[in-house]
Amino acid sequence: MTNEEQKELEKKALDQLMTGKSLFGKDGAFAPMLKNFIEKALEAEMDGHLNESQRSKGNKRNGKGKKTVKSGFGTFEIDTPQDRQSSFEPELVKKRQTILADNLSDKIIGLYGLGMSYRDISGHIKEMYDTDISHTVLSQITDRIIPDVKAWQNRPLEAVYCIVWLDAMHYKVKVDGKITHKALYNILGINKEGYKEVLGMYISESEGANFWLQVLTDLNQRGLEDILIACTDNLKGFTQAILSIFPKTQVQLCIVHQIRNSLKYIASKDQKEFMRDLKLVYRATSKEMAEDELLALEEKWGDKYPVVIESWQRNWEELSQYFQYTDPIRKIIYTTNAVEGFHRQVRKVTKTKGAFTNDMALLKLVYLATKNIEKKWTSPLHNWSLTIQQLYIKFGDRIPLVLNTNSSGASPRGIETPDRV
Question: HSE of 75 in the Cβ direction (CA atoms, 13 Å)?
Answer without folding.
Answer: 12
